[in-house]
Each structure stands twice: as structure tokens, then as C-alpha cells.
Known about the structure:
Blueprint: E1 2-6, H1 9-26, E2 31-34, H2 41-52, E3 62-65, E4 67-69, H3 80-89, E5 99-100, H4 109-122, E6 128-131, E7 153-156, H5 159-165, E8 179-182, H6 185-189, E9 193-198, H7 204-212, E10 230-235, E11 249-250, H8 257-260
Parallel strand pairs: 1-10, 1-11, 2-3, 2-6, 3-5, 6-9, 9-10
Antiparallel strand pairs: 4-8, 7-8
Helix pairs in contact: 1-2
The structure holds fructose -6-phosphate.
Amino acid sequence: xxxxxxxxxxxxxxxxxxxxxxxxxxxxxxxxxxxxxxxxxxxxxxxxxxxxxxxxxxxxxxxxxxxxxxxxxxxxxxxxxxxxxxxxxxxxxxxxxxxxxxxxxxxxxxxxxxxxxxxxxxxxxxxxxxxxxxxxxxxxxxxxxxxxxxxxxxxxxxxxxxxxxxxxxxxxxxxxxxxxxxxxxxxxxxxxxxxxxxxxxxxxxxxxxxxxxxxxxxxxxxxxxxxxxxxxxxxxxxxxxxxxxxxxxxxxxxxxxxxxxxxxx
Length: 265
Ligand code: F6R
């Protein structure tokens, strides 16, 4: 794992945006994996800035979302589809019709999971997956004790995650769905390159566990240790629990060679 410690959320966003820019300059029709939640917002704003400045175009890219709540229509204000529209699509030149997500309102959810999994494969797989991390170590909505080999499926959200996400539902825990469709850990691991962004002290334990702890389903993000090309970009607060903190790359010392090695196959 390449761990990069940046001074603040904006610097974390720039590290991740550099990866997107590098990839898209090499491969304009790249397939991006996009996360929702607070963590990638600064990254999406930085991508927006670069598109507006003419430094980047996502017009030929395709994107696949990680997850979606069960039971929320795509246009529900708290749906992840709506989030990606508002926070990424309208701010950049990424085309709405090129963004794909699992349909949490599908009548047959198991069939929908299979369809979604196949659609990622049919697009050639994800070139760069953007991830956040839950305070309990989840990636996508793969909660603790998820199979490390899992594929897109229905999952039950933990009380902790529902509590963490209630802010998107006006703070009302009762409005937060209990279930979601999520790419599995195996699906995420199939992405050729991964960048995980995390900021704030609430993520410090999860970052320590997934980077320095044993690989365990109790901290699902720890499976990323088995990925051949993953960058973990964190701010000082999220890096606070790292024992090897002084060893990891600080942005002012960051080199570009590690990040310029792209896995294409
Ligand atoms: C979102 C997702 C989740 C979030 C995680 C962190 O698509 O898959 O894994 O990345 O819950 O959420 P935030 O960034 O809101 O703290």
C-alpha cells in the first residue's frame, strides 16, 4: 500500500485528483469507480475545478457506483444516484448516462446484483476505484464480517453505519434504510487501481486497522493489503493512529514514480 499523508482535506483531494488526471490523460475513456459520502466530495470539487480550467475532461469516461440503498428511488434526495448526479455529474463533463449504479428499487434485487456485476465486466472492469472508509472499516457497504471474496449483493447496514449516515436523512435514524446493494469486496478488489481517501479523527482507527492490522473480515478494508496497486490518501487527523506514520510519505515529500505506475490488465 502506498500511504500518503497530506496536510488537510484539500491536499488529500489533490492527491486523489492527480491519480484521476494521470489516468484520464493516458486513457480518456477510462472506467472510474465512484464512491459517495462525505469523503470524496473535496475530490469531486477538485475534479470540477480541473474540468472548468480545461485541464481535465471526463466526457469519455464511464463510472460505476459502489452501492445504493434498497428501497430508495433513483431520484430520492438521499439516494446515492442522486448524490453522484449532484456532487459529480453536474459539476463536471461526466455524462449522466455514462454513470451506472445498482438499482435499489429493482423488483428482483438478487437479479439486479447479478446484472450490475456483469455490467462492470462488460465495460472492461474498473481502471481506478475511488473509495472512502467507514468508521467500522467498511468499504462500499461491506460491513464487518463480510466475505472478503464477495460480489455485488444485498447487505444489511449496521446500526453504526445507519447512525453515521443519518445526517443525509435530516438526522432521523428511522428514515435510514436497513439494507443496501453493494459491490462486494471481491468486486472492489478486481479494480485495476484503487485510491482510498479519508479525513478527520473519526477515521483514524479504521485507517490504522486496515493499513497496519491483520487482514480480517472484521475490518473489511484490510483486504486492500492484498491489492497490487492501492493508494491511501489521508489527512493528519486520519493518520493519527498509524504506528508507521513517520515512515509513510508526506505530501511535501511525495514522489511521482509510485503513483505513475498504472496497472492496465
Ligand atoms: C459510499 C461508501 C461508503 C463510504 C463510507 C464513508 O459509497 O461506499 O463506504 O465511503 O461509509 O462515508 P463518509 O465518506 O461519508 O464518511
